[in-house]
Design a protein that fits this description.
The protein has 13 helices and 12 strands. It is globular and about 55 Å long. The chain is α/β, with parallel strands linked by helices. Helix 4 links the parallel strand 2 and strand 3 (88-91). The protein folds into 3 domains: 7-94 and 161-257, 3-Layer(aba) Sandwich (Rossmann fold), CATH 3.40.50.620; 110-157, no CATH class; 269-315, no CATH class. Helices cover 43% and strands 11% of the residues. Strands 3-2-1-7 form a 4-stranded parallel beta sheet, with helices on both faces. Strands 4-12 form a two-stranded parallel ribbon. A two-stranded antiparallel sheet has the order 5-6.
């Protein structure tokens, strides 16, 4: 009988000491590796989470392949770090982000909102429209009615960017090589990822996908990087004690709250999903300072400034 995961189980796992989490992650990697006879790979974004995953996996299997999706949307520091690692295969999308925007539309607010707005425009008389945009309907805490005005936006809106730019090239690689992906996603990163863990846990052998760090938290990632001393992308800056922004002195204390002096999360630079929830300076305001040429291209050449203005986000 298949084990049914619970929120209580997830909370218990998330509260474990880092040392125990590392051991459990190693076990999940071994199980997945053995099940597929070593035909697995690390989905390596160059970000801090997948950097930790790659380090743990290669402490067990030094020659395990890593695959990096060069979407053209990564921070330059992320791409430089990712492509400098050993045994990393680079895959690229068939069309550029600019072409995605022109053919499909901009990623706005969230994947769910963008998808629903695109569907609304195609079929405004569909029965689900009244439920989604007229009634008091929420999805993952999003008030759908609040975003109804997007149906009249003077630009295309779509949720397809991530699939076309990142997921499809990775799927093509996996299909062509037969390698099954090990991914560094965590249940704490959102409702959808938590729901996925509750449904399948860390390893899904039927789907051929492993998330062996699902029960980790952001603080675990930072603590691992700090204690291990392994290299990570310079885009994050230093790892510091969040109180007073002072360098952490007591490495043995589990009570230290850590932060980075650089960016907190990376992902695609020009993506607008979730930016409306960020405190100022948001990702685009920071980009204006740290990467002015890319900011100019994003805001003016790609037209993201018009989109941000329309949804009321300062940039």
């Amino acid at each position: 009988m298949k084990h049914k995961h619970t929120k209580q189980e997830l909370t218990m796992l998330q509260s474990l000491p880092l040392e125990v989490k590392i051991k459990k992650t190693e076990l999940r990697i071994r199980e997945f590796y053995d099940y597929f006879g070593g035909d697995v790979c690390i989905s390596f974004s160059g970000g801090k989470d997948s950097t930790v995953l790659l380090d743990i996996a290669r402490s067990i299997y030094p020659n395990i392949t890593a695959v990096f999706a060069d979407t053209g949307l990564e921070y330059p520091e992320i791409k430089k770090f990712a492509t400098s690692q050993k045994n990393v295969t680079i895959v690229r999308p068939e069309i550029s982000f600019k072409e995605v925007l022109e053919q499909y539309g901009y990623p706005v607010v969230s994947k769910h909102i963008s998808r629903r707005v695109a569907d609304y425009r195609k079929n405004p008389d569909a029965k689900w429209v009244k439920k989604a945009f007229e009634d008091r309907y929420t999805f993952n805490s999003y008030n759908m009615r609040k975003w109804k005005f997007l149906k009249d936006a003077p630009f295309l809106i779509s949720d397809k960017c991530c699939d076309i730019i990142k997921k499809n090239p990775l799927k093509q690689f996996e299909k062509g090589t037969g390698l099954k992906p090990i991914i560094a996603t965590m249940a704490s990163e959102g409702v959808l990822r938590e729901s996925a863990w509750l449904k399948i846990g860390c390893n899904s052998f039927s789907n051929g996908k492993s998330n062996p760090m699902s029960f980790w938290l952001e603080q675990d990632i930072l603590r691992y990087l700090k204690i291990s001393g392994i290299p990570y992308s310079t885009i994050y800056g230093d790892i510091v004690n969040d109180i007073g922004n002072q360098m952490m002195l007591d490495l043995d204390s589990d009570n230290q709250i850590l932060s980075t002096t650089g960016v907190k999360r990376t992902g695609c630079m020009f993506c607008m999903f979730g930016v409306q929830l960020e405190k100022e300076p948001n990702r685009f305001q920071k980009m204006r300072v740290t990467h002015p040429q890319l900011y100019e291209y994003c805001i003016n050449k790609l037209g993201c400034g018009i989109v941000l203005d329309y949804i009321g986000v300062k940039h």
